Amino acid sequence: MRRTSSARSTTSSLLFTLLFVALPTSAARRPRYGGTLTVDLQGRATSLDPAQKQGSVADQIAQERLLELVADRLVMLDQFGRPKPALALSWQHDGKFTRWNFRLRPNIEFQDASPFTPDSAATSLQAMNPKWHVGVASDSVVVESDSPLPDLLYVLAESRNSILLRKPTDVIVGTGPFHLTTWEAGRHAVFAANDDYWGGRPFVDGIDVQMGRTVRERMIDLDLGKADIADVAPDRARIDASRGVRISASDPAELVALIFSPSSTRAEDVRIRQALSPAIDRPSLVDFILQQEGAPAGALLPQWSSGYEFLFSTAADIAAARQLASQISSGPALKLGYDSADPIERMIAERIVVNAQAAGIPISMRAIAAGLPGGTANRATNRAASVPEYDARIVRLPMSSPAPGVALGDFLQTVAQLADFDSSLTAPLNDPANSEQLYSRERAVVDTYEIIPLVYVPEVVGLSARVRDWIPARWGKWHLADIWLDGASQ
Amino acid sequence: MAAAARELARKVAASVGAAIQGKLTIAPNFVNLSSLSAFEFQKACGAFHDEIEQQTKTFRATSSQEIAAASVNVTLAEDLHGFLWVARVTQGQSQQTVFVSVARELVAQESQPSPSVTLQKEFLLSQSEPILDAGLLAVSPGSTPSLLVLQPNRIALFAQENGAWRLQFETPIAHAAPWPRDVRGRLQQGGAGEEAVLPGVTCNITVSSALSASCKPGNAGWLFSLGFLRAFTLLPTAAANGDTFTFPALGSQEFSSVAVIAPPVSSGASVPVIATTSDGRALLFEGSSTPVTSFNNWGSDVAVLYAADRTLWPLLVTRDGDWTAPDSVRAFDIIDRQPVAISGEINFDGPITALWSEDENTVLAVSRNLKTGMYEAYFIRAVYNQ
């Protein structure tokens, strides 16, 4: 056995145009270790436990980002959304997708030195997924379900399915690339690199996270070098970039939509819902409110995820809106709710009011509390309720997964708590990877006009000059273990 | 992509044919919303057109009823998983939409870039797992070479089949400690045959009826510390011209990559060495542990195209940017202790993650394609201008 040699080249003396080349201005360097990464987040995570729901979308995103530092999932997604082994080395499923077997990575420890076992993985998964039957078999975890789970790999890659040890003192422990050293709920957290991490020690030594920072504080911290990474409001992205701030924006990762209340008798008439949709000038929402950092939305899923969003119209049609509005009997103005703490929701609501009034639809704004209400939503059963706080409200729906089947399923589960949907529209799809099924379902949902997609919004961050190898997933997920700091001492 | 376009045409024909029967002409409109090149897109549209003509010939009129004209809007888009053909068929008042998906990896393999003129790159294979090193291996004397591929957790042997490398065998690499995040590894000829060297582990590789690897802690000549090389003794085969040579002591500094850039001027002489550091510098050593000069703003990876009949070995250097940007490789000579570009750049669709001298006049380059996420291995060879 020997290594072969390629044929020798025929050579002679070098006859070149000798050109002295200015070598690159910044080098393609391999990563280096060391340093503390500082991060400013908009949201306030009050707990790292995904079972503890957070108050707002920003808080929820903050929790997910911090949780991913300390915990792993059985499966992770690569930059392109493909499932890859994480704590599970391999997997198999039956023909109906009702039984999955995950063979686990051996010799892994939680950060409190207790062993990662099939039992610990099963307990963690069962706590978050009560409808599944999660068991163990030898070196494996077995997930069974009465209904098929064809998209289970993507579901398991969601941060809520992180494998955790839940301690009696509300402390959670994971197997992730960092471990928590300081925790002040909603304010401050410090993480240290896990030297024995199975995926390789992170490049940075630690991460210092400040939570609940205002837009101004985040920008000042970036300008002064006090933050390496900071959330940036989408409408600020271009302004900050023009000031010289290094900006990174994901593909659209969040849907902003308008949802009609099941308690609203005013919204019972489908014509008023149908009239409002073409009245809204979505491109203007993107151009003037999001400062072009986003895209008009005609469907629930963005184009990059589903591939068919272009089939849904986003064009305004004031004439059609006026014609529909003229058929509606006069009544009280629609009350449009928005989160009083969210300036982007307020600006979008203001714009919608202008558009609707131009189409002859009486409408007014109403500030409401943050957060999404729970419970069931059904116009018939909610009719007896007292006068609703709003007839329609603006909601922000972050994509839970890049996989269109999973994201659509999660969208519909959330929306079903807010709008009057037939249960057939929120039932699981037989084949969530089938574009025709996804399209048919989305088309049916959008055609109810119970939800009106408005705009897609990316996740935007500002970066300091020393952050290297910043390669977030296209849907915004961060990979802080992979980044390194230029100039950090080793 | 053409096969998928044909499948879409069959679906369109079926959707129309289900409604009516008769002679039918479908005039499609094509729109490309994807990242596929215009050339590839046009080729696929041609396939759609051919197939739709073929399909519509099979329709037969069963009655004299007038057939409504059908129009088709064909769009090539992209979803999370790859490419998505969408056809909207409008016939009278009815509208149907049909889809065909194509995995991104399939398209990437179809449209590999062609080699450049001065430096030639030869595509070997593409896979989702990282490739640390790869080399041709004659399993038995005179046999067609196989391709041995080193990955972080396994060694794989590929065989040529219809012009492509197909996986034949694979064997796991046993290691107790986690790899560094920036894991590197090397296939090399050891005392007992082919071996794989990884951080803290050396594996002796055996290929007979199957592939096996016997892995033990320890490296002969390689020392890794958290992804960096402290020392590097992989030298281009000194036997290139039969001379022996000495390797300058490089001190205790950590280097990302090291290359001998010229054969010794006489047997036993020290060879000039370029070593790159993690802060973007390249140091030139000429026999002592003190560099004689340094160059700023170099890429981390260098490798040399050595040849017995050349007095200066072209040094291949990667380009600027971190691992978020496409990379390129260019050949330099070091003349009067200054780098002189002697080739144009050959471009890659992502950062170079490995660059190793393989054998005389061959360098292996591995790039992580930023468009697909796949690791792509290439052989780079030089065609020397006369």
Blueprint (SSEs and pairs):
The complex is a heterodimer of chains A (490) and B (386).
Chain A: E1 2-3, E2 36-40, H1 57-70, E3 75-77, E4 83-85, E5 88-93, E6 99-104, H2 118-128, E7 133-137, E8 140-144, H3 152-156, E9 165-166, E10 172-173, E11 178-184, E12 188-193, E13 206-210, H4 215-223, E14 229-232, H5 237-242, E15 246-260, H6 270-279, H7 282-289, E16 295-296, H8 303-306, H9 318-326, E17 334-339, H10 343-358, E18 363-368, H11 379-382, E19 392-398, H12 404-416, H13 423-426, H14 435-446, E20 451-463, E21 467-468, E22 484-485
Parallel strand pairs in A: 2-13, 2-14, 17-18, 17-19
Antiparallel strand pairs in A: 3-4, 5-6, 6-8, 7-8, 9-10, 11-12, 12-13, 14-20, 15-19, 15-20, 16-20, 21-22
Helix pairs in contact in A: 6-9
Chain B: H1 2-19, E1 26-32, H2 38-57, E2 70-78, E3 82-91, E4 94-103, H3 104-110, E5 119-127, E6 133-138, E7 146-150, E8 154-161, E9 164-172, E10 186-190, E11 193-198, E12 201-207, E13 211-217, E14 222-225, E15 228-232, E16 257-260, E17 273-276, E18 281-285, E19 293-296, E20 302-304, E21 315-318, E22 328-335, E23 338-341, E24 346-347, E25 352-359, E26 362-368, E27 375-382
Parallel strand pairs in B: 1-2
Antiparallel strand pairs in B: 2-3, 3-4, 5-27, 6-7, 7-8, 8-9, 10-11, 11-12, 12-13, 14-15, 16-17, 17-18, 18-19, 20-21, 21-22, 22-23, 22-24, 25-26, 26-27
Strand content of chain B: 35-45%
Uncertain ranges of chain A: 1-27, 381-385
Q: In one word, what is the shape of chain A?
A: globular
Helical/strand content category of chain B:
mainly beta
How many DSSP-defined strands of chain B? 27
Q: Tell me the quaternary state.
A: heterodimer
Q: Helix and strand succession of chain B?
A: HEHEEEHEEEEEEEEEEEEEEEEEEEEEEE
The number of helical elements of chain A comes to 14
Looking at the structure, what is the overall shape of chain B? elongated
